[in-house]
Amino acid sequence: MLHRIGRDRVVYDMSPEHKPVLEVSPGDTVIVETEDCFCHRIVSESQTVGEDFDFTHVNPATGPVSVRGALPGDTLVVSIENIELDEQGVVETCPEWGPVTKVSQSCVTEIAKIHGNYVSFMGERIEVRPMIGVIGNAPADKSIPCTTPGKHGGNLDTKNIMAGSRVYLPVFIKGGNLSLGDVHARMGDGEVGGTGIEIRAKVKLTVDIDKMPLDSPTVENEEAFYLLFSAKTLEEASHGAVKRAIQFIADWKSIPEEKAYMLTSIACDLMISQVVNPLVTVRVRVPKEIL
Ligand code: CA
Ligand code: CA
Hints:
The chain is mostly beta strands. The protein folds into two domains: about 150 residues, Jelly Rolls, CATH 2.60.120; about 70 residues, Endonuclease I-creI (Roll), CATH 3.10.28. It contains two helices and 22 strands. Strands 1-5-18-7-16-19-20-22-21 form a nine-stranded mixed beta sheet. The longest helix is centred in the last third of the chain and has 20 residues. The two termini are about 35 Å apart. The mean pLDDT is about 95. Bound molecules: calcium ion (2 copies).
């Protein structure tokens, strides 16, 4: 069955308190309209997130969607089928954003127009690679702002979350209560300046339930699995993601962890997803050729 949710149905945190805006069955498809991370308040280059910008309302996520039969301890499987971009996106940076501060003296905006598979950015033609920045389930017993990533998902800013990939998210409450937003027409690993090309979109996805538990978000595409981990520092996040990879490979192949560690070392890539959110996110890419 096909459902739709408009981009007026948004939340700014992932919370067990939010009532679902839609209930679907496993196998159902949903077209989710997403708002851009600035709630479409920056639509020209004369606008910036300068002084009077309301930062209490950023990174809206459309939803939540409850999935019938999903129970705490299950895994929600979200297959991203298509991401249709709006006609223009926005790139923004400010003096204090990202690892290198004071590159700009004030907040600056660039508008990027979409032309089919390309975006024009400062006169350059750059290929679009649409991806979802925010996607997650409601946590069990607290609210987590959509600006923050974690075990529930959230602001993961991981560029493999794109059409053709499958996102696995732990379920903490009945129904899971999935919400998503913050689509980027393109983003580099790290999202170092603070944004990708922030844009409204229509995301077509199919949901399913896996009865296997999961401890943190995982992404799968044709070639690989990506095991994500978010933490306060890159060191802690790397530790968490590599530990997940060792466990994943050891379980998959029924081999001791020390052998799985060696396989991780020779064939898997430790990659940075983003370094600009309240927790940073890294991932380990486990190629299917070794599984
Ligand atoms: Ca983001
Ligand atoms: Ca963003």
